[in-house]
Specification:
14 strands; 39% helix; 13% strand; 382 residues; 14 helices; four-stranded antiparallel beta sheet; TIM Barrel; seven-stranded parallel beta sheet; alpha/beta
């Protein structure tokens, strides 16, 4: 089997020749900048001008050379969106920090000393108190793409790789609101003023559909999976009540999935962190084929439980190692033991793409990362 055949086989809940691997390519399966430098040093590779693919999280596009050395099965193209002018977008710095305001009016800040990420710092509608004031928000225009950029995806397909579009428009239906109003305001509005939230989420659905239409206009026929984010979970449960998610967000996800799948035969991923056990049946019913990053350390997210109850209905793309504790803080032997245990739990019957639980952070020792990778290589055959 080539990589694409291997991934498609497991996405259809069958056992391929070995477990597919995604390290450094898929949605939230990437490397932060400083860890990637460690990886380059380990392989003896020099790369200039690392390309950041997500400014707040400081994750990079890994080179094909690195992905080949890791024997990864997945590739995502470096999308070069044609961005229309936007009144909010701006970057600047002062003596202490870097600042970046995106097209949603979300202001991020990263201190120049001892910092790893851009943190959410301010929002454009934080002082809005009515639907009338909300309407002052200037919506971003979904990006378009250059037809000439299709070649990179064609090359990946011809080389036998599975392909994924990881870029998205905004965030999810729950998690875009905080980028505009701030978390505290948005969560209060969901509970007390849903009449302000619902039009925003419905408008977001329209914009997302337009965004995917723009993607398919260039990359149609070459995409195996797409990834849509909406962090529904915290460490202990859902971010808001399961009832609210079922009634307000997932119907919009279902409509978006139906539109995406009307364009071509494709598998769709929901990236949702934390404990989402309570709403997994609803996520499946909304049309998602894949769950990522499978946060195994969160409440009720035990691998054996997930596989037993949902393994026939959704693919687990992630869950290969705990990135909150074991990968950064464990010994290499503890990493090996956990990696083997999780492979044994998730792999039988297909429906599992091995990857870390979320992006690999800068505090991960290279010895631990390689212990995970070597254990996977020793145990990836069915």
């Amino acid at each position: 089997m080539n990589s694409r055949e291997r991934v498609l086989c497991t996405l259809n809940h069958k056992e391929p020749d070995r477990i597919p691997l995604d390290l450094g390519s898929g949605h939230c399966c990437k490397f932060t900048k400083y860890f990637y430098v460690k990886l380059l040093d380990y392989f003896g590779i020099k790369e200039d001008n690392l390309e950041i693919c997500s400014l707040p999280y400081q994750v990079v596009y890994a080179s094909d050379k690195v992905l080949d050395l890791l024997k990864g099965d997945v590739r995502n193209p470096r999308l070069k969106p044609i961005r229309p002018p936007n009144p909010y977008s701006k970057k600047w710095e002062d003596e202490e920090s870097y600042y970046a305001r995106n097209e949603w009016g979300t202001l991020y800040r990263m201190p120049k000393q001892h910092a790893l990420y851009f943190d959410l710092y301010d929002t454009v509608l934080k002082n809005s108190e009515s639907l009338e004031e909300d309407q002052k928000f200037v919506w971003p225009v979904p990006e378009k793409f250059d037809r000439n950029d299709r070649k990179e995806m064609e090359d990946y397909r011809n080389a036998g790789f599975a392909t994924m579009i990881t870029e998205v428009f905004g965030n999810g239906f729950l998690q875009t609101g905080p980028l505009v109003w701030g978390f505290e305001n948005w969560l209060a509005m969901l509970a007390a003023e849903p009449e302000r939230c619902i039009p925003f989420m419905e408008k977001l659905l329209e914009k997302k559909i337009e965004y995917y239409d723009n993607i398919f206009a260039v990359y149609g026929g070459l995409i195996d999976t797409t990834a849509e984010p909406d962090d529904f979970g915290t460490q202990r449960g859902t971010f808001v009540s399961p009832k609210l998610i079922r009634e307000m967000m997932l119907p919009l996800h279902k409509k978006l999935n139906a539109h995406i799948k009307s364009k071509q035969a494709i598998k769709t991923m929901l990236h949702t962190c934390g404990s989402v056990y309570a709403i997994l049946p609803d996520i499946i019913e909304a049309g998602y084929d894949i769950l990522n990053p499978v946060q195994i350390a969160a409440a009720n997210m035990e691998p054996e439980r997930l596989k037993k109850e949902f393994g026939k209905d959704i693919v687990f793309w992630g869950g290969g190692i705990n990135t909150q504790a074991t990968l950064p803080n464990g010994t290499p032997q503890q990493v090996r033991d956990e990696t083997k245990r999780l492979i044994d739990a998730f792999a039988p019957g297909g429906g599992f793409v091995f990857s870390t639980v979320h992006n690999v952070q800068d505090d991960v020792p290279i010895e631990n990362f390689m212990a995970m990778w070597e254990t996977f290589q020793d145990n990836c055959k069915y």
